[in-house]
Design brief:
heterodimer, A: mainly alpha, Cytochrome Bc1 Complex, Chain D, domain 2, three-stranded antiparallel beta sheet
């Protein structure tokens, strides 16, 4: 008897849990629209949406290498497998041409597609949800007025059980904190605007905030620095390793041009972010700079910690072989008095990567160099990956650390060199 | 004295270890094919091969070259007996002032030795670090395509976009 009751109880419990799960995970399709005519949108709002698309760098993920803009197909490697970016052109069959404004808004706020399917959080709706309705609507008008491209992305390749989309409902229950963000009345308008953009469409935390085991942002470690594509996105809070203060003006110049004269050139994934921000509205990039600078207000450099001195003699003595390589390969641009230094480029001593806890960013820059996108100007550096052996690269990196920082030597430089060589030179 | 392996021969060089390879090639070894362009690794006129990979010799101190093999354009043949790439550049008249050509040829050589059937976009991406200020790029690309074919391969069209 007891056994039967228990079984019945378990059965009822399971059924209830299942019903609850279905209720939580199930979302209705939002009726498709016949298709929007581009002329039906206000050009001024399309222009606003264009700036926001640059701020979110939508094209960065939603365009395959060599592919048509916004047509998707770019693979995104995640710890759970490969997710292919979707086609967000207004193509009715393979894109989002039949998505109404409400369907688009739901996708950005809740991570649910027009047909009711859960989207994977590789699409950063946990950030986009913070954006204002007006911004989301402007973005909608922008994407709906792009050239439709018929293109179906490849199927995702996820490890079991992640291919089962309803699981995302549980993730959302645990980790999705729906927006939009309200204004903080104690802060000026540009700060509030900057916060809405940085936390929302710009999704800065997507790279700069570490994630937990299931890929959700760790709110207790916001902007504490994290790994992305073999690069370390440094902390944007009181733990910022910068040795010169990040003011709003410096950040604005950096975000807009890819170069801060007192910090470094933007490299790796951040380089691509600055290429996009260069095309966004100036006042919106400035607002982001105001907000992000406020996050770093208590960082050591902002608090007036003096930058370390150049210990050239000490480093030359402790790393004689690397000192020779530096003199022959690096000094022509980076030593005091070099032509590049006359143009106001940051001295290596101020370069944030050298002051990070790991050598990876420094090595990535040396191995792959820096190149602006085709047809545009920006910081340039030749790639040294094929000029130097692994050991020589490691020696140079150790020399830079000893010469320009007060920090202890980096551990495990050979591993970081090997990792940088493995990463594509994208 | 530093020992350098250039074009298959070993040379003992009397130069500071931080001397760029380009200076040693031109001044000490009288191999004047590689050119000094910018001295900043931005133009590619000084490109040579180090262990089969292209490198800017103006930014490569000889101290880095122990045990590594350097090859310059002089290794690709003589004026009387042109190598495949130099012959292809001549056939396509792929030079105007010619200053960049030694670097262009060495960079192309590295690609074709590794892969003589690259796609057109692979070819363009590979050649991108080397600049030609006369604007001879289209002829240079034609010359590399010609050389790829002469080597038994050929530059392929890019595959249809599979989007």
């Amino acid at each position: 008897m007891i056994g039967k009751t228990l079984l019945l109880g378990i059965a009822i419990g399971l059924a209830t849990a299942l019903a609850a799960a279905v209720a939580v995970s199930w979302h209705p399709a939002i009726p498709p629209i016949p298709g929007a005519s581009p002329e039906s949108f206000d050009p001024a709002i399309v222009a606003r949406g264009e700036s926001l698309a640059h701020i979110g760098n939508c094209i960065g993920c939603h365009t395959a290498r060599g592919g048509r803009p916004f047509a998707g197909g770019r693979p995104l490697q995640t710890p759970f497998g490969t997710v292919f970016a979707t086609n967000i052109t207004p193509d009715p069959e393979t894109g989002i041409g039949r998505w109404s404004r409400e369907a688009f808004r739901r996708a950005l706020r809740e991570g649910v597609a027009q047909n009711g399917d859960h989207l994977y959080p590789a699409f950063p709706y946990d950030h986009f949800t913070k954006a204002s309705d007006a911004d989301i609507d402007a973005l909608y008008t922008f994407v709906m007025t792009r050239t439709p491209v018929q293109a179906r992305p490849p199927a995702n390749q996820l490890k079991p059980p992640f291919g089962f989309r309803p699981l995302v409902a549980a993730w959302n229950l645990l980790f999705l904190d729906k927006g939009p963000l309200g204004d903080n009345p104690n802060q000026p308008a540009d700060w509030n605007r900057g916060r809405a953009l940085a936390e929302g469409l710009a999704h800065c935390g997507g790279c700069h905030t570490p994630r937990n085991e299931v890929g959700a942002a760790r709110g207790d470690h916001a902007y504490d620095g994290a790994w992305i594509e073999g690069w370390y996105a440094p902390p944007l809070n009181a733990n910022s390793p910068a040795v010169r203060p990040w003011t709003a003006d410096e950040l604005f110049a950096y975000l807009r041009t890819g170069l801060s004269a007192t910090h470094a050139a933007a490299a790796g994934p951040m380089g691509r972010v600055t290429h996009a921000l260069a095309q966004a509205r100036e006042d919106e990039v400035r607002a982001i700079a105001v907000y992000v600078a406020s996050l770093m207000a208590h960082a050591p450099a902002t608090q007036g910690a003096p930058p370390p001195a150049d210990k050239g003699t000490v480093a030359d003595a402790s790393h004689p072989e690397a000192a020779v390589l530096f003199a022959g390969a690096c000094a022509v641009c980076h030593e005091a008095g070099a032509p590049m230094m006359q143009e106001g480029r940051p001295p290596l001593a101020w370069g944030t990567p050298l002051h990070e806890d790991t050598p990876n960013d420094t090595i990535q820059i040396i191995v792959h160099g820096l190149a602006p996108p085709a047809g545009r100007s920006g910081p340039t550096m030749p790639a040294y990956g094929e000029s130097f052996s692994d050991r020589q690269l490691g020696d140079i990196v150790a020399y830079l650390r000893a010469r320009y920082t007060d920090k202890p030597p980096w551990p495990d430089i050979p591993r970081a060199v090997a990792e940088a060589r493995k990463e594509g030179d994208e | 004295m530093i020992s350098l392996d250039v074009n298959g021969a070993t040379h003992q060089v009397e130069a500071d270890p931080d001397t760029p390879l380009l200076y040693v090639l031109r001044n000490d070894l009288k191999l004047n094919g590689a050119k000094f362009g910018c001295g900043l690794g931005q133009c590619g006129a000084c490109t040579v091969l180090v262990d089969d990979k292209p490198a800017f010799s103006c930014l490569l101190p000889i101290a880095a070259l122990a045990g590594r093999k350097v090859r310059t354009i002089e290794s690709l043949g003589t004026q009387e007996r042109l190598g495949v790439l130099p012959a292809a550049f001549e056939a396509e008249q792929a030079a105007q002032c010619g200053y960049c050509i030694a670097g262009m040829i060495m960079r192309a050589q590295a690609l074709l030795e590794r892969n003589n059937r690259p796609t057109d976009s692979e070819l363009r991406a590979h050649m991108a670090p080397n600049l030609c200020r006369c604007g001879t790029h289209m002829r240079i690309l034609r010359a590399v395509r010609r050389a790829a074919a002469a080597m038994g391969g050929g530059v392929r069209d890019d595959p249809e976009r599979t989007l």
